[in-house]
Amino acid sequence: MPTWVLNGHVGHQRVKNFGDASYTDWKLGVTKNFANGIAVALAYYDTNADEAVYTNGYNDFLGRSTGVLSVTKAF
Questions:
Q1: Residue 69 sits in which domain range?
Q2: Which residues contact 74 (CB under 8 A, 6 or more apart)?
């Protein structure tokens, strides 16, 4: 019988002596587990990371929001 699971997470990264690099991150998602060991999950991730601090040399903001769809199989 398929099972639905609601996933949530909130975390905070504190960077000592460099407060601008500290940030909070969060996740909200849902997972459906099937009897055959397969699970399908969809999640939304985001942060309040400072764009000026978390932009790399390729001008990509590493703290941007994103969605992730995954399929896993337990053996």
A1: 3-73
A2: 37, 38, 39
